[in-house]
User: Fold this.
Amino acid sequence: MTHTSTAQAAARDLLTTLTGTAPQGIWSAPGRVNLIGEHTDYNEGFVLPFAIQHRTYAAASPREDGRIRVASTFADEPVEVSLDDLGRLFPTPAGKAPAVPEWSAYVLGVAWAMRALAPTPAEHGADIAIASDVPVGAGLSSSAAIEGAVASALDELWQLNLDPVTLAQIGRRAENEAVGAPTGIMDQMASMLGLPDAATFLDCRTLETRSVPTGFTAEHLELLVIDTQVKHSHSTGGYRERRASCEQGAELLGIRSLRDAGVEDLPRAADLMDDVTLRRVRHVITENQRVLDTVDALATQGPRAVGDLLVASHASMRDDFEISVPELDLAVETALAHGAIGARMTGGGFGGAAIALIEHASVASVSDAVARAFSDAGFAAPHIFTVQPSGGPRRDA
Ligand code: ADP
Ligand code: MG
Assistant:
């Protein structure tokens, strides 16, 4: 008997309740963790994420009445629109909330972006039910997972045969223009291109990718995720401000994006901009270099050589980009004090998760130490688990 995850079963059951019959298929896509390269994606720089074993499932069946209906275990009510409505609903005007419940905009936005690219017959609709074991808002990209699962389902139901990079672009467009979250393409690419035991190096300007073996398994290493449970919100405040600072910094440097600057440009940058903008710019420039150094270290020296780069990345986000929070700092400091090879906050910041690269044998001791430190500090108990580099989207049933 094959293993069926509870989220997969939940998606199947929800679709069956919705339509009265079993789904035609079930598709899934993984969340991702970013090993290094934070806030570099929208600056056309470098990132090194990997897909994780946590997945979002989309159980789906085709409809022939031009309607699309979506349900999620997160939501009390399904949302139903006609394909014609999609063009009226999206793009969501800048600064406005989507005209449909926000969670459903991820799903309907994928349908909209997909039809914009590859027009399907007007009568081709779908019923879709979503369930997930990717923690939401933890910096593990439940959003790319839901987009990837839905994109994979519709691609097959509507017989489009789009390639993974195009499906990633569809997911990004849904998130940017339907949901209204101004994110880069890293999450969707990491989810779509995931491979076991490997991270995905991505050049966010050219979209060139390279699979980079992590060597974690052979070296008996684990990547511990410490989800602080502090919720971030990408669509608001800090994230937009950081993007604006980066754009301003690039403009002052006279370059298209911060990708075009290197550490040798930092003295010039210091003369051109105010202290806050300089520190934002310095984070992005040094972080790009750290991604390249990490890829190099993994290839030439193995995973134990990347610890200092992870630690430097965290310091840069804490001090220069100013997107850490006390819970993330405590998670990183405690993991390092208990023998972690490296640790850093991961994801967009303002909450979410930290990662720590540790010996397999010390999973329990580091986890216990972090839990104790949180309790002593009066913080809510963190959610702590390990993630393994895993495969991309697939059809499960
Ligand atoms: P992250 O991607 O870091 O988890 P985001 O804010 O980018 O956080 O995306 C989370 C949002 O994605 C949720 O608030 C919800 O709207 C949507 N989402 C994710 N997973 C699901 C799901 N299983 N069902 C419905 N909506 C989901
Ligand atoms: Mg997200």
Summary: The mean pLDDT is 95. Residues 56, 72, 74, 102-103, 106, 130, 132, 136-143, 146, 234 surround adenosine-5'-diphosphate (ligand 1) (CB under 6 Å). The chain has two domains: 3-211, 214-387. Residues 275-300 form the longest helix (26 residues).
